[in-house]
Amino acid sequence: MSRESQKTDWALATRAVHAGQSPDPSTGALMTPVYMNSTYGQKAPTELIDGYEYSRTKNPTRLALERNLASLEGSEYGLAFSSGMAATNTVMNLLQSGDHVVAGDDLYGGTFRLFEKLYKNYGLTFTYVNLSNLDEVQQALRPETKLLFVESPTNPLLKICDLSALAEMARSRNILSVCDNTFATPCLQRPLEFGFDLVIHSTTKYLGGHSDVVGGAIIARNQELHEKLAFFQNTVGAVPGPMDCFLVLRGTKTLPLRMQRHGETAMALAQMLEAHPRVKNVIYPGLSSHPGHEIATKQMSGFGGIVSFIIDGSVEQGMAVAGKTQLFACAESLGGVESLIEHPPSMTHASIPVEIRRARGMDDGLIRISVGVEDKDDLEADLRQALEP
Ligand SMILES: *Cc1c(COP(=O)(O)O)cnc(C)c1O
């Protein structure tokens, strides 16, 4: 039996290493080679070798990655893109002018910008709701609603929504349900299992895991959706290069190991912060004080590596803490092996007007950390010294 055909029997950690990959047929190379080629020789006109014609349409390194990612999300249908935004944009290609979209009000900033600055001009309309409140979601649905766009946990407030309930609500009204699973990763949460139609990833974050590549992916529930999206992937052409695919494929091999470590250290740091006199509030789905803790426990097998916390103080004081760490690098992005710290009010979320930002619960003293895989005690000591007044 080939490794690929076994992929559904294997546990996630085994699939992470092997799914989609088998020794290269020409040399036996165990790691999928980086196929740096745009075109392929054909046996004769229209007689392709193994279906390969042109690399925008199909490339062996990309195909290995697409199969690997699909397997991790519990599907057979994966597509890789040049960025997370290219993946999200491709999902939007399924819609037509006049369609209505319901999305979370704590959406990734780039996704919000895509909807508001681009797709509004193409006759699409959008309603943003608190996805943790099912009544609010229900009330936002209209006859012309065609897509429900969900994130859980969200950024930077780590809000949790009930994935089964939302998928069911969408399915009962024939609305396409999409979950951006970048924060949780398939190690902790697999939205297709809860009834979602599509999963989006920014592979730039945990899947790549080493802050050395930008990429995205879509995993579909069924072949029909996959084929429509594959048509857009080839037609629009926002595909990743083979080297980028290789890097993400290398990253996913250690994803289960990394997620376990990220989660353990994040929990320890969240508990340390909760007891710290300068910290007003710690936001981490693994803490019983988190309002979504119960649902998170039901639908996630771990709580991830992102912790947000609020210090009692001004924007300047928040900036000072984020600027004072030595091990945590002050930077945007997340999900790499190295720990990062950022101050959303002055960095990633600075473009949101002050009143709206505060009304959404993003206090001036809000700080977000992406916990890496370094030693827990070193990370804790670094945060403690940065929090000294
Ligand atoms: C980073 C991110 C994206 C966008 O991905 P890029 O690879 O930067 O294009 C989308 N969604 C979430 C949740 C993200 O964190």
Considering the chains and any ligands shown, give keywords for the structure.
Aspartate Aminotransferase, domain 1; 5-stranded mixed sheet; 15% strand; Aspartate Aminotransferase, domain 2; alpha/beta; 14 helices; 389 residues; binds pyridoxal-5'-phosphate; 12 strands
Give the secondary structure arrangement, pairings included.
Blueprint: H1 12-18, H2 60-72, E1 77-81, H3 84-92, E2 100-104, H4 109-118, E3 125-129, H5 134-140, E4 145-151, H6 163-172, E5 176-180, H7 185-188, E6 198-202, E7 216-220, H8 223-236, H9 242-253, H10 255-274, E8 279-283, H11 293-299, E9 306-311, H12 315-324, E10 329-330, E11 340-342, H13 354-359, E12 366-370, H14 376-387
Parallel strand pairs: 2-3, 2-4, 4-5, 5-6, 10-11
Antiparallel strand pairs: 1-7, 6-7, 8-9, 9-12, 11-12
Helix pairs in contact: 1-2, 2-9
Bound molecules: pyridoxal-5'-phosphate (PLP).
Question: Can you give a write-up of this model?
Answer:
This protein has 389 residues and is α/β, with parallel strands linked by helices. It folds into 2 domains: 12-253, Aspartate Aminotransferase, domain 2, CATH 3.40.640; 256-386, Aspartate Aminotransferase, domain 1 (Alpha-Beta Complex), CATH 3.90.1150.10. 36% of the residues lie in helices and 15% in strands. The chain contains 14 helices and 12 strands. It has helices spanning 12-18, 60-72, 84-92, 109-118, 134-140, 163-172, 185-188, 223-236, 242-253, 255-274, 293-299, 315-324, 354-359, 376-387, and strands at residues 77-81, 100-104, 125-129, 145-151, 176-180, 198-202, 216-220, 279-283, 306-311, 329-330, 340-342, 366-370. It has a 7-stranded mixed beta sheet, sandwiched between helices. The chain has a 5-stranded mixed beta sheet with strand order 8-9-12-11-10. Helix 2 packs parallel to helix 9 (242-253). It is globular and about 75 Å long. The protein starts with 11 loop residues before the first helix and ends with a helix. The mean pLDDT is 96.
